[in-house]
Amino acid sequence: MPVKRLNNKRADAKVKKMKGNGNTLTNNVRKILKALESAYKPHTNAEKAKAMKKYMRGQFEYYGINSPDRRKIDTDVRKTMPDLSLTEHHQLLNELWELPQREYQHFGAELARDSVKILTGDSDQDLRESVTVIENMIIKKSWWDCVDLLAPRVIGEFNRIQPEVMGPILDKWITDDNIWLKRTAILHQLFYKENTNQEKLFRYSLACAKEKEFFIRKAIGWALRNQFRVNPSAVKKFVKENDNKLSYLTKKEALKHA
What we know:
By secondary structure, this protein is an all-alpha fold. Helix content is 67%, strand content 0%. It has 15 helices and no strands. Helix 11 (179-187) runs parallel beside helix 13 and helix 13 (214-228) runs antiparallel to helix 14. The protein is globular, with a radius of gyration of 19 Å.
């Protein structure tokens, strides 16, 4: 299965645009970045880093810190973090995504997950600016390890809070050329359970049904499988009615627990 590289020109343009707003990094953001570097470096393990890079198909560099150990380090660093403004959150997330080691992106994705209320802001414009930051995190250094956290736990929560703002954005993403934005749109309701907008789920599934990309076919099946737990008859009916449109992988995943 080929590795899907991001659209570098698009992602780089977004970073340039965000960095070109005249905002220099605050002392708080600089201190957090320095604290993370100081905490990660002593735990560098070249052998593990090599294995991790290989597992991720050579796409990312690593310090070589196992996830449980990395999370312990992250917890210690976050205990010392000052309260950050919305702008500082944006700055920190943008900077974390520019650093080479993947551990920084994991820190950023988990921070975004835990900062949804702050990132939502006090206005529609605040939320749109946060979405721009998260979108950059999705389309730059794209892979399932971060996207599959950002999709339901950040974008999905944004949609719960402000569906009027997020609806048009997600409708745009489901038709985007970038497979990771498509995957995010498909998976954003993953943990909605009884609150899932089933019509939207089925519509998004059909919108991408012709995609040959593994990560899209798998995502559709995953989203349908979670909805099966809530409304099995509806999912069975949808799959049956669209048998000639949905891929074998999608149908297999969707009806895994049938």
